[in-house]
Amino acid sequence: MYITSHIEKMQRDQLINARREAVNLSYNSAKATNYVNYLEGDDRATEEYIYPNQREDANNIVDIFYRNKRRIITVQKKTKVGADGLMIEIAKLMTTHNDDSFVINTVRIITGMSNAGWEKDMKDKAPSCFKENIFHHGKLKKSDLLNIRDALIIIDEIDTGDKELQVLHRTLKESGILNTKYMVDKNIRVIVISATLIRELYDLYRWGDLHELYKMTIPHSYVSSKDFVEMEIIKEWYPLNSRENARKWIEEDILENYGNDFRVHIVRLTTKTVEYVHDECISQGVTFMNHTSVERLSDEDIDEIFRKPLTNHIVLGVKGLLRRANLIPNTWKLRIGATMELYTLKTDNNVQIQGLPGRMTGYWRHILDGGHKTGPYRTSIKAIEEYEIIYNDPFGNNSYQAAGFNKNKKGKVKSAATMLSPRNITNLTPVDLPVYLEEPEEQPKPVIKRKTLQEIKDCFKNELVGYGSGPHDREIDDDGFYRCITQFDKMNKKIRTTAEMGKYEASKKWGFRGNTQESREKNMYRVYPVYSSESDKDSLEWWLIYY
């Protein structure tokens, strides 16, 4: 009996190691193929197969699963920050993990989107060992989720197709996965990803310790919709519901703005507004081309527009395309001038974030900082401002509107249930949502300022008893300066000056305290390096803000 069990264990160990080796070989092959394609000029290939921030995030997410009893992790990101690479890296790490009791052998990467292009792009990029396990909405019935175990399920763009009784819900329910006991017994873990998942986040909060939120790292090289607003690239939209407005957009945003610097301009249209824009393009001598789900441009057309020299301005009228999960390569972005989203009286913030400006976000800050001209990208500025606020503080005192979700200025939420709502999860004991504290925000204590970080640490030890262990050591950059983010500028790690930080001190608003009991317990203090002159590293002071 002992000999038999020993042999079985040896065979099992050999199988696990063989699977690890197969995944690594497949991963390295995909990595090499991507680099060859990049050197050959493929617009969709990248200089690195998986970038350092994606590897770091993937390791952190796997570690959360490994060290905690989490069964589902929400990955919140910004548009075009790089979820494809993250998903591949997580799948690779989970299937090659060095702990035999944790490693998984089954991966599914799925989405509720009806988007064959998403599936094709993922299969083109993924290692061969994962290619046959990638399914969009139209192929979910083939995803073979029944009776899987030791598995990782990644659901991309979770906020599309996750309503109750839609195909994605039915597929997961019929497989037994929407059952916390089943997930534990079968060793199944789930990751859900999107840039716009506020409604899902409210449902998943109620999963308690089985769930955790993780926000993807945003490198300095990334440019966001918020950055576009600050750069004055994003400007306020207006309806193209008349010849006059169509003429205004073409004349002001295209002809007067770009002159003979011929560009491709993109506008989202309806069957009615297309007539106004098309007619005005003819009148103004601008080339108009339809690019819709019905009348799609060919690969030859795309090559002509984005690779070969232009002799005229081109307006692309889009409908049903260039939304979430659609990539615009950086080489194409350089050709794009003005964009106009479809104006609506009632704004769906998710739609605007995922629309044309969202497609233009990504890793090209250095090009814009170098003086490249682009825009204006017209959309709802209010939608972007509300998105940034709720992204940083989803359960705070803020407002947000999207399909199936409405949160007013007092923090009151009306939300349609998703497949992740507690009522759809068997064996879940739901926790309550955080209680919003409606009393005014506490006033911070007077700012403590010291010349060295050690003095701040000493102050912490002697005066701030009960505030935790205090600040950690900070890394100094090669030029001798310390850089940091603030709650009002989380995308930009830079030198902070007394002129900037003094405004926050005067207003007594630092942005990190929050309005829920949970937030206040986690955010009792911040320490910032502050310079009286951003060119003098000796002008450094350390500021301690606490409540």
Keywords, please?
547 residues, alpha/beta, Rossmann fold, six-stranded parallel sheet, 20 helices, 17% strand
Describe what you observe in this structure.
- By secondary structure, this protein is an alpha/beta fold.
- Among the domains are: 225-387, Rossmann fold, CATH 3.40.50; 448-546, no CATH class.
- It is built from 20 helices and 20 strands.
- The protein has helices spanning 2-39, 52-67, 83-95, 116-125, 128-131, 167-174, 180-185, 198-205, 225-230, 243-258, 273-284, 299-306, 330-333, 349-354, 356-360, 365-369, 381-392, 453-463, 498-507, 517-522; strands at 72-76, 106-111, 134-135, 151-156, 188-194, 211-215, 234-236, 264-268, 287-292, 314-319, 336-340, 377-379, 400-402, 405-407, 413-415, 448-450, 484-486, 489-494, 525-531, 540-546.
- The longest helix is centred in the N-terminal third of the chain and has 38 residues, at 2-39.
- The N and C termini lie far apart (65 Å).
Helix proportion of residues, in percent?
Answer: 25-40%
State the secondary-structure class: alpha/beta
The assigned CATH architecture of the domain at 225-387 is 3-Layer(aba) Sandwich
Q: How big is the Rg?
A: 26 Å
CATH class of the domain at 225-387: Alpha Beta
Q: β content, as a range?
A: 15-25%
Low-confidence segments = none
Oligomer state equals single chain
What shape does the CA trace take?
globular
Q: How far is the N terminus from the C terminus?
A: 65 Å
The biggest beta sheet is recorded as: 6 strands, parallel
- In round numbers, the mean pLDDT is 90
What is the CATH topology assignment of the domain at 225-387?
A: Rossmann fold
Helix segment count?
A: 20
Q: Give me the count of strands.
A: 20
Strand order of the largest sheet: 3-2-4-5-1-6
